[in-house]
Structure formats: C-alpha cells, structure tokens
Amino acid sequence: xxxxxGFSLKNEQHFFESYLKKSEYTIAGFSYGAIDALQASLYExxxxxxxxxxxxxxxxxxxxKEQQFKxxxxxGYKKDKEAYIETFIKACxxxxxVQKVQHRTTCIEELEELLYYEWSLDSFKKLKEQGVNxxxxxxxxxxxxxxxxxxxxxxxxATVTSIKKANHFLQEN
Length: 173
Fold this sequence. Notes:
Layout: E1 2-4, E2 9-10, E3 26-30, H1 32-46, E4 53-57, H2 67-79, H3 81-93, E5 102-103, H4 108-116, H5 121-129, E6 133-139, H6 147-154, E7 159-163
C-alpha cells in the first residue's frame, strides 16, 4: 500500500487503520495527500502497473470555497507559518481533543495547491475504466473542507462513506 500524507504531516496513516486496505495494489491519501494519491494512481496505470483501490480520506476539497477564504488562508500562512499550522491542526481535530501528530516541513506552494486544486470527474472516470475501485471517506464534523460539496462531487465517481460524528481525521471522539 502506498500512502500520501496530509498538509504539513507525516506518518498519520494510523488514524485510518480501520479503513485502510493493506494491499500492494492500494493507493491512499489523506486530505492534501489525496491529491497526490489520485495523481499517483493515474501515473501507475499509465506505466502499466496494477492499481485495485484508491482510498481518499477527507480529500482536500476547496473548489466550492470563495476566493476570499483562500486568500485569507494564504495571508495567514505567510504572516506566521507556525501559528497557522497550529491553528490548522486544531481545526483538523475539532470538535475533539488534539492528538499528537508528526510534522514535516511545508511551503506556501503546497498550501496554494491544496486550496486551489480542482478535482476532475474525468480523472476518476479514467481510473474506473481501468477497474480501479474508488473509496472516499468523509467526516461530517470536519471543520476543514466543504463536506457537503465533497460528498455531492465524489458520489458521482466513488463509493462515499460518511461518518456522522467524525472530524477531519475521521475521529469520532
């Protein structure tokens, strides 16, 4: 299994242990990492490699958010990167207690990609045509992404599992 981490994170796949398919033919990603997981799946298939399942956990879905929201996020990061990431992690765990996570160095370009990324149904159609099973997991207490917009979008191309009281990390308490 290949796993891609969320924005500013590393080694957080243990949060998704109960959902992860541990197969060498599974590609998974959390939040920002879901973008990389989609791209890796398309790349592997183009190289003639086998991909059975693509799992997206709380995919970074901001295409329904206003430009003002995105600009404010960028300004906050530029002003004080550490404070921005601390606030971001707290929001990821809200409404529950913050748990310990490992961080990696990040940059403004990653935040920009995360905020401005446009998911394409065509990419998912290509995967489905190749026999890839696409699974999306969303927590309805998620304070980071547009959960309702993500659900509406991904229902067109994937099996969507909605977890009623779960946050961005799919934690229920």
